[in-house]
Amino acid sequence: MAGGDKNWDLKVILWKNETTEGTDAAPGVATDAIRVLNYQPTFMDADQKVRNLEKAFFGADPVAMAAFKRGASFDMEVAGGGTATTIPPWMKVMQSAGFGVGVAGASSVVQSPTSQVGSATHWGYIDDLLLKTIGGRSTASFTIEDDEFPLFSFNYLGRPPPLLAEQAAPANPTLSGYIDPVLATSENTTFLLDGFALPLRRWNMSSNSDLQFRSLIGPADRVNYANRSWSGTILAQIPDLTAKDYFAKVRPGTTMVAQAVHGTTTGNIVQFDAPKLQVSGNIELSNEQGKAMMSIPVTALPNAGNDEVVFTSK
């Protein structure tokens, strides 16, 4: 992977949650490589401070760059850990997006939100170009769509170390704990909204993490995870209203339980639970192959707290 031009198609992505925020966790190719799709780094995002000098001639003013930020966006496939009680790799990344560690029980691994959000170190190799990011946190989302592979998506924001780039060729990564995903289909996936098997086209939700870059004289710059607000859209076929009337939920603001279970084989089943889903915007109707469809904007409300969206691998 080394020497000369940088080949965009050659990538190694490393991720390690930090013990001390902002201290490089030094992820290794043998233990911390993650398998991602659609990787797009943000090399830098800094503020330009212009020195507006008075001068006796035309010309540009010098600048200084400040408040250096760096990030990346990528997807991970929704799949189990291989056994019912093995933590799947995506749960490690989800910790930077407002979730605690996955907790293994007798027959499953459950990952719930937390209000004490940790930070992560991310190293991205493009060929032998190494971009390091420290102290990062993320926004997470998921999409379940008919005849597609369900995905978790992450938008990660951190800060670069003083050296913006290095040339270092990685060894071949060890990608352990990954199993093949399955398509979202009637055979592989079930979806219940308010206890009713709603014919689903797509369900997508985002944590909408409020990531605030903090820069002060004295302490190190940091990315503050200020809040989250899970929301998204359900696109589905309108059922007979005598069987289920979702439109009647709008005016009173009635909440609904939503659950998707994806996969049928033990060790490769992932369950999505939202115990208090509320219609939170304008419902839109559309035509799909002559069938009336509805797009429902929804927000996931906390129930007891830190439980508005829960993931289970089993």
How many helices in DSSP terms? 1
User: What overall form do the CA principal axes indicate?
Assistant: globular
How would you spell out the order of helices and strands? EEEHEEEEEEEEEEEEEEEE
Instruction: Please indicate the percent range of residues in DSSP E strands (runs of 2 or more).
Output: over 45%
Question: Which class best fits the helix and strand makeup?
Answer: mainly beta
Compute the number of structural domains. Answer: 1
Biggest β-sheet description: 17 strands, antiparallel
End-to-end separation in angstroms reads 38 Å
Would you summarize the structure shown here?
This protein has one helix spanning 90-94; strands spanning 11-17, 37-50, 63-77, 103-104, 109-111, 120-126, 129-145, 151-159, 166-167, 189-193, 200-206, 210-214, 222-227, 231-237, 256-262, 270-279, 284-288, 291-300, 310-313. By secondary structure, the protein is mostly beta strands. The longest helix is centred in the N-terminal third of the chain and has 5 residues, at 90-94.
